[in-house]
Amino acid sequence: MEQKQNIYNPCLFTGIIGDPEDPTDSPATFPLTLGLYIYDFVSFSTFDEVEKKIQSALSRIIKVDFMGIVEWLLGIHFQ
Q1: Among 50, 48, 41, 43, which Cα is nearest to 16's?
Q2: How many domains does the chain have?
Q3: Pick from 35, 51, 61, 76: CA 20 to 30 A from residue 70's CA?
Q4: 44 Cβ partners below 8 Å, 6+ apart?
């Protein structure tokens, strides 16, 4: 994932995700925003395809409990 750190919040990154394990996979068309703090993170995209890509990629390398829709993380409100 090529990412760009948010200039207002150093815990937020936005970028386009692709699957580095699958050379035939094309990068997502729409961006993903990832909020990261120590071991907690939240991902957000306006498209389900992008959310599925990040969930698939993370599930292959670490055990992750996806908890569904999040509204708040560390004082950041996601709508």
Answers
A1: 50
A2: 1
A3: 61
A4: 32, 33, 34, 35, 78
